[in-house]
Write a structure and sequence with these properties.
Two copies of one chain form a homodimer.
Chain A: H1 8-23, H2 30-36, H3 41-47, H4 51-55, H5 58-72, H6 79-84, H7 87-95, H8 98-109, H9 112-135, H10 140-162, H11 170-185, H12 190-195
C-alpha cells in the first residue's frame, strides 16, 4: 500500500481498508471513511459511487495491465500464451497488496451481493480479453475458451494466494493452477471413457 | 415444447414464449401472458416472481439432471468425467427446445440485466457441481477447475448449438468444445514459451 500516492483517492482507499479491517465492512460508513481520510463525503463521491466501489477499484487497473501485456505478445503466440502473458505484471501489481486482498476476499465471501458484483466484473474482464483475442484474429471459440480458461486459472490461483502468506507466490500459483487445469482436462484412457 | 404438460405453469411458459416471439420480450406484460394462457395474473405470480423468471425456469431442471447424472458415475471416475456425464441427459432435455433456446438467447443478449442474471445462475450451477465433486472426495482445486471447465465447455457449445439448425447437435458440439479447450490449453512447445 505504501506506493499509493497521497492523493485523495489513495487516502480514501487506505482509510476504507483500515476501517473495514478494524470494524468490519458492513459497519463502516462513507462518512467515516471520508473523516478518517481527512476529506469530505463530497470528495468521496467524486471518486466512488458507493462504499462497495472501494473494493473494486483495482478492476480497471487489472484489465489495463492484462490487455497491455496481451498486446505485446507476438502475433503468432497461441491464444492462451497471449492471455498468460498478463500474469507477470499482474502478479507484480498484487505483490504488495496481499493484506488488502485477503481482507477484501473475506468481505466479499460474506456478502452475496458483492459476490455477484465480483462475478460480473470478472466476466466483463473475460469479455475484454476475448475481444482482444478476436482482434488478433483468434477464432471465436478459441478466444472464448482461452479467455475463460485464463480467468478460471487466475481465480483459482488468487484464492490460493490469499489463503497463504507469501506475497510473491501468485505467479507460481498461477502456473500450478494451469498445470492442474491441464491434468483435469487431460483425455481419459479409453477404459475409463467406456465405463461412462 | 409438446411434452410440457397442459398444467398452469406449462401454459404460462408457452404463452410467454409465443408473446416474446411475436412482439418482443420488453413489450410483453405479465397480464398479457396470463391472458394468453387463459389464466389470471394471480396464477402467474404463483409460479413466477416476475416475467424474467419465465426465461430461467429451466435452470433448476438443468441442475437437477446434471447432479443426478454426476451422482451415478463410478466414484473412481475423474472429476471431469463425472461432470461430463451430465451432458447426455442435458442434451436430450434440450433437444426439443431449440426454437425456445434461440429466442431466449436473443432476448438475453439484448439485455445486460438478464445477462447478469444468466451469469449468476450459471455460477450457482458451477457452485453446485463443485460441491457435488467435493462430496465425492475430489480435492478443492480440481473440483473448481472441473466444474468451471464443464460450465465453459457447455456455454460455448450451447452458443454454437443455438446458432445452427440441428436440434440433436448439442451433445456433439459439447465434445467438440472440450476438444477445442484441450487444444487451447495444450502445453506450448518450449520455443514458443521462451519467446514470451
Amino acid at each position: 500500500m505504501s506506493r499509493w500516492k497521497p492523493d485523495a483517492q489513495g487516502r480514501l482507499i487506505k482509510a476504507a481498508i483500515e476501517l473495514f479491517a478494524e470494524q468490519g465492512y458492513d459497519a463502516t460508513t462513507v462518512a467515516e471513511i471520508a473523516e478518517r481520510a481527512g476529506l469530505t463525503k463530497r470528495t468521496f463521491f467524486r471518486y466512488f459511487t458507493d462504499k462497495r466501489e472501494v473494493l473494486f477499484f483495482g478492476s480497471e487497473e487489472l484489465e489495463r495491465i492484462w490487455l497491455e501485456a496481451l498486446a505485446t505478445t507476438p502475433t503468432d503466440a497461441s491464444p492462451l500464451a497471449a492471455v498468460m502473458a498478463g500474469f507477470d505484471p499482474i502478479a507484480e501489481m498484487f505483490e504488495e497488496r496481499l493484506p488488502f486482498a485477503r481482507l477484501r476476499a473475506g468481505i466479499i465471501m460474506a456478502n452475496p451481493e458483492l459476490q455477484e458484483r465480483e462475478l460480473i466484473k470478472l466476466q466483463r474482464l473475460a469479455g475484454s480479453i476475448k475481444a482482444a483475442l478476436l482482434e488478433r484474429g483468434v477464432p471465436l471459440n478459441a478466444a472464448i475458451l482461452a479467455a475463460q480458461t485464463g480467468l478460471t486459472v487466475f481465480h483459482v490461483a488468487f484464492a490460493r494466494w490469499v489463503a497463504q502468506d507469501d506475497p510473491a507466490a501468485l505467479r507460481r500459483l498461477i502456473d500450478e493452477s494451469l498445470d492442474d487445469l491441464r491434468k483435469v482436462t487431460a483425455a481419459e484412457p479409453a477404459a475409463t471413457r467406456a465405463r461412462l
